[in-house]
Specification:
With 337 residues, the protein is an alpha+beta fold. It is built from eight helices and 21 strands. The longest helix is centred in the middle third of the chain and has 13 residues.
């Protein structure tokens, strides 16, 4: 049984990106040029409260996913507070032509003119946004009813309480690494939170993304592109197939390393990957299965036996630079042991 098949092509994607249509510094054409030149095949330009179809950028080797970033803050005036909690959600459209804005609130649409606000296709309630689990779950449900799938963005930066996070319903995935936030303090690698969600029975996948704004030059340590990405494994390189693969969890999160194959035969798991320093299998216990390279060397494969008490199976690797790659969690009822 393949958890990551060696027979499926992997497409490199950045699923969180900002352009001049909100607070980014690059045009969509510039973003395509730079990401394609760096080996990416898929890009979702997710400007704040600005849903846009960028399919005019598509070519046989490059695909854009229509989407945008919505958010809810603790104050009704949508003021930014560096000490306050908030939530950010990326919405990806199942139909590339879907540019509907969910639960429209003009105070959040800071990057478009009043005239443009009138032209938006608005769906769902337009009540004042309220920072509460109840309201946020309703927003997610409304998005799903109107053709979007919802991803949970940068939980560390958002400063949300774990108890509230565990009450959210309807996310298909969460950002394991949000590279823009990771650059701030190297805390936006969210494996511990992800495992807690799995242990609480949350059927949620994981991915990584840049959340790039490109305010710093490419030769700066603050350059926020090409640091977190998602490898997606669709049946074919089409919009519908990519969205389907995302919804099914046919993808994995990375900051650098890549998986080549993960397979299971009974309770035995076999892993092949790019050269790394450590390979781990998390199962919901205090002690993940692990294999280390010798000092100054690397490894690229490992085999482990999964015990009968495993809550789930999740593979993680880390290279010599401290960069991780992570699969989603696979629950026991998805595995043949």
């Amino acid at each position: 049984m393949y958890l990551i098949s060696p027979f499926k092509k992997q497409y490199k994607a950045n699923l969180h990106c900002h352009s001049v249509f909100s607070d980014g510094k690059k045009t969509p054409h510039e973003l395509k040029e730079m990401y394609k030149a760096n080996g990416y095949s898929i890009l979702s330009i997710t400007d704040h409260e600005t849903p846009k179809n960028h399919s005019y950028l598509n070519d046989p080797d490059f695909l854009t996913i229509t989407g945008y970033e919505t958010y809810v803050r603790t104050n009704e005036e949508c003021r930014y507070d560096v000490y306050a909690k908030e939530i950010h959600i990326n919405l990806f459209a199942r139909d590339p032509e879907n540019e509907a804005i969910v639960c429209y609130n003009p105070k959040y649409c800071k990057y478009i003119s009043d005239e443009q606000k009138k032209e938006l296709k608005k769906v769902g309630s337009q009540e004042v946004r309220k920072y509460s689990v109840e309201y946020i779950n309703k927003l997610i449900q409304t998005a799903k009813e109107n053709g979007y799938i919802a991803a949970y963005n940068h939980p560390w930066w958002s400063m949300e309480d774990e108890a509230d996070i565990l009450k959210y319903e309807g996310f298909f995935s969460m950002e394991m690494c949000n590279y823009g936030s990771y650059l701030i303090g190297h805390l936006e690698y969210n494996a511990a939170l992800y495992d807690k969600m799995l242990l609480n029975g949350k059927r949620i996948f994981c991915h990584s993304a840049d959340d790039n704004h490109n305010a710093a030059p490419s030769d700066s340590l603050e350059f926020d592109s090409f640091g977190g990405f998602t490898m997606i494994m669709p049946e074919s390189f089409t919009y519908d197939s990519v969205i389907c693969a995302m919804e099914k969890g046919e993808m994995y999160s990375s900051m650098g390393p890549e998986f080549k194959e993960i397979s299971m035969t009974g309770n035995k798991i076999h892993i092949e990957c790019s050269d790394v320093a450590q390979i781990m299998v998390f199962t919901g216990s205090k002690a993940p299965k692990r294999k280390y390279a010798s000092f100054g060397e690397t490894i690229n494969s490992a085999d482990f036996e999964i015990d009968d008490r495993a809550k789930f199976v999740r593979v993680s690797v880390v290279d010599k630079y401290g960069k991780f790659a992570d699969t989603r969690g696979f629950f026991r009822d998805e595995l043949e042991f």
